[in-house]
Amino acid sequence: MKFLFTKGFIVLAVGIILLAGCQSEESSEEEADVSETESAATETENASEEEEEHEDHAQEEEHEHDEHEHSHDDHDHSHNHDEDIYAGYFEDSQVEDRPLSDWEGDWQSVYPYLLDGTLDEVFEHKEEHDGEKTAEEYREYYDEGYETDVDRIVIEGNMVTFYEGDEENSGEYSNDGYEILTYEAGNRGVRYIFALEDDAEGLPQYIQFSDHSIYPTEADHYHLYWGDDRGALLEEVTNWPTYYPSEMDGHDIAHEMMAH
Description:
Helix content is 50%, strand content 22%. The chain is of the alpha+beta class. Helix 3 (120-129) packs across helix 4 (135-146) and helix 3 (120-129) runs parallel beside helix 6. One of its GO terms (molecular function) is zinc ion binding.
C-alpha cells in the first residue's frame, strides 16, 4: 500500500513538471509572437514616416521650383516691360510726373566725342546690327542730333548751370509738367518740362528733358531741349543735345550706347 502511494505521487509530480514545461514553452512562443508583431508594427510605422518625409520634401522642392519659375517669369516680364517703355510703347496711365532731382549731377555733352571720332565704333555697330543706314549715314544723323555749344550742364537742387566755353549761366527752374509726344514712326516719348523762375540773361525760359523713362527714376543720360517758346520746343525732333555723366570718358560712353 505504501509503495503504490509513493508510485502515484511520483507519477503526479512528473505530470506537474511536464505541464509546467509546456506552459512555459507556450508563454515563450506567445512572447516571441508579440515581439515579432510589435517589431513589424514599428517597421511599418517607420516606413510610413519615411514615406511622408519623402513626400513632404518632394512637395517643398516642387514649391521652391515653382517659386523660382514664378520669379524668373516676373523678371522676364519686367525686363520686357522696361524695353517697351524705352522703345516708346506705353499707356498714358503709366506716365508719372518727375522732379528735377532725377537729372541732378554734373553732365557732359557727347558732341565732342562725335567730332573727334570716339563714337565711330557706335555707328559701325549700328550699321552691323540695325542695318537701316551705313555707318557714315548714322554719323551724319547723330551729328545733327548731338550738335550743341553747351558742353557741360550742372544741376543741383533747382539750380541749373549751363557751361558754354568759358561762359557759365545759372538759374532756378521749377516744374512745369510734362507732354506726351507721338512720333512719325508710331512710338512715343515724354518731355518733362521746367520753367525759369526769374528772368536772367543767357538762360532759356524752358528746358525739356527726354530720357526714355516715364516715371521717377535717376537718369543715366538724357536729351535736353531748351528755348523761350514752350510749344515750339515740343516740335523740335531733329536736334537733341545729349548728356552723360562728366566722370565717364568717351570709350565708356560709346560702349554704354552700344549696350542699348
